[in-house]
Amino acid sequence: MDLSIEHPRFYFKLFYLLAFLFIYIMVIYKSLKRGYHLRSVLLMLTTISLFTVLGSRLFTIPVEDWLTVIQSEATVFNNRSSVGGLLFGLLGLVISQRVFGFNRPMLDLYAWIGPIALGIIKLGCLFNGCCYGVPTQAVWGVRYPVGTHAHFNQWSASVVQSDMAMSLPVHPVQLYETLALFLIGYLVYKTHKHWHKNFSAILSALVLFFVMRFGIEFLRDAEGSQFNTVYIMGLRGYQWSMLCYGVLAAIALVIYDRYLKIELVKGRQNSPFLHADFLYILLISLCLYTFRNVFSTYESMVVWIKFFPAIGLSAYYLYSDKRLKPYRWLTTMVLLTPFYVLAQTIPNEKPVVKQYHRIDVGGSFGDFSNEVRYNPQSGECGTTYDTEYFKQTYSIVGGGYSFITEKEKSKLTYGANVSAGSIKSSNLTLHVDESDFVFAVNPYFKVDSKWLGGGVGFQLGNLRMNKDEVIDESNIKDAQKTYVFLPEFYARVGPRKYVDLDYNYGFLYPSAFPTLYSRASIGTGFGISDDYSLRYGYISNLDTGYISAEALITKQFGINIMYIFEEDYYLPVDEKTSGKLVFSLNYRFGHKTRN
How far, in Å, CA of 345 to CA of 325, rounded? Predict the structure, then answer.
């Protein structure tokens, strides 16, 4: 069978990501069923992924070269070891279990999904042509094209001629290993309940894995291995090590499960330890920064897709748990640390002039309260009013177009947005509801340099604003006035790429109205670019704070999200407002560059 693939590295990366995605989905699914705190689960997944990737790389690099790889990117070391990934990943699991206290079901889960994930990665090795087998005349033998490890090593050893397009047929040993790993996962899944101790299922999986690797090496070409080819009594040193590991793991399993009276890995009720989580995030960030030169892009991705949601949930608990209120500034800085680390791994190449078009779609949802005073009357201490209280729920959606020109030291943006939605006004005094349709057209213009920025625009349509009203009329019909025209402006100081302060009156997509029209914030782009930002701010008309994030996911697609915390507004009735959400997606196209 000829295996001719145009981009073998693509398939290796694909199956590599699929393996970690499989673990991700299974762990999240089981965690939701058992009621685990997702913040802790995601931090555990981040740790295991980090250690697995790190172990797979470091296991193939001589110890004396570790410092060289850490200090500067060394492209000569590009091999990976499933054994190293398994052992280091197991270490990450043990560390996570000790910190977060996951009990036996989580350990048993990893015992059987770990081998299956490794089997998925081995399918990538099959298409990549690495870890290939010895030559065979079997009908299922695989021939690899020019450019693969198998063809190159056979050509170097003069086994094939330089003009031969395909290698000699070899055992698809990677496929054998995939099937064996799937079988190991199945056996561990079927037998994990028969063991007595928490860690026994994992030890049983290790025994089967090492025995499998010992046997599979008889069919693997020694030239395709990144380990030494020293032979001892007819077996390679690597095979002897796998056999020894298997025997030691089997002895440890029997002694631990049958004879030891203690639990080496103790489970406890999973509960959130907020202070530990923030310290844990800091340590993971330090580890990612230290080994940033070791990881490839797709290896970093399998870590960050777990780390990002963990940071987001930690931020949510930070601002919703009253115990952490006195320490929010300190813990917020801790949550910013991972983004600084990420910034150091992203190349920052920017043309002198870049122009592109941008389309935005998004929405904002929430509610707010206000009061209206009307029917002025003469009193002993001056004019008095009747008062009615309102709670209003709104949903706004919109779309926009803009044209952006980025130069080396400035960025010019002009465009227009349209938004529409509904506001339901509930008179809490009279228990009367009324819904209104609101809409707006919003042309705008803004310019940003490195240290300063500004912009102007206006909203035209049927608009509302959340503010307390005093109406010199004897009757009241609704909670707010309707506005046809509202100006907006924006000002900024400081390099947005690093840290800046801004003030916005309006200037929010899809619409700053009816609630978010006057706000100030501080933010950072983590040293990456203006397309990335994390901000914390204050909304003066709501007397509450908010947190927002912006990121460019690919060259074309970006995302913005803002969460506004519940405002502390007094109402004489038992009605409270909730937090508010603003989000949008953007698509960029028609890129042009010139010097």
Answer: 32
Query: Taking Cα atoms as reference points, which of 511, 531, 550 lies closest to residue 400?
Result: 511
What does the alpha-carbon distance between residue 232 and residue 238 come to, in Å, rounded to a whole number? 10
The predicted model scores a pTM of: 0.57
- For strand 580-594 and strand 353-379, is the pairing parallel, antiparallel, or unpaired? antiparallel
Cα dihedral across residues 312, 316, 318, 323: positive or negative: negative
Q: Which residues contact 454 (CB under 8 A, 6 or more apart)?
A: 446, 447, 489, 490, 491, 492
**Which H or E run contains 360?**
strand 353-379
In 525-579, the DSSP E strands lie at 533-539, 544-552, 557-564
Query: Which amino acid type is present at position 416?
Result: A
Residue 332 phi, psi (nearest 5): -65, -40
Alpha helices in 101-157 (DSSP H): 104-128, 149-156
Count of residues making up the chain: 595
The CA distance from 213 to 190, in Å, is 21
Contacts of 276 (CB under 8 A, 6+ apart): 99
- The alpha carbon torsion through 300, 303, 304, 310 (nearest 10 deg) reads -170
In the beta sheet, which residues pair with residue 364? 396, 582
pLDDT score, position 574:
58
Q: Is 446 helix (H, G, I), strand (E, B) or coil?
A: strand
Question: What's the half-sphere exposure (Cβ side, CA atoms, 13 Å) at 193?
Answer: 3
What is the average pLDDT value for the chain, to the nearest integer? 81
3-state DSSP call for residue 172?
A: coil
pLDDT at residue 271 is higher than 90 = no
Place of tokens 């927002």: 548
Q: What is the CA radius of gyration of the chain?
A: 30
Per-residue pLDDT of 319-356, as tens digits, reads 776 676 776 677 777 777 777 777 666 555 555 678 99
Mean pLDDT score, 432-438: 85
**Paired tokens of 484:** 């046809």
Residue 415 CB-half CA count within 13 A: 21
Contacts of 591 (CB under 8 A, 6+ apart): 354, 355, 356, 555
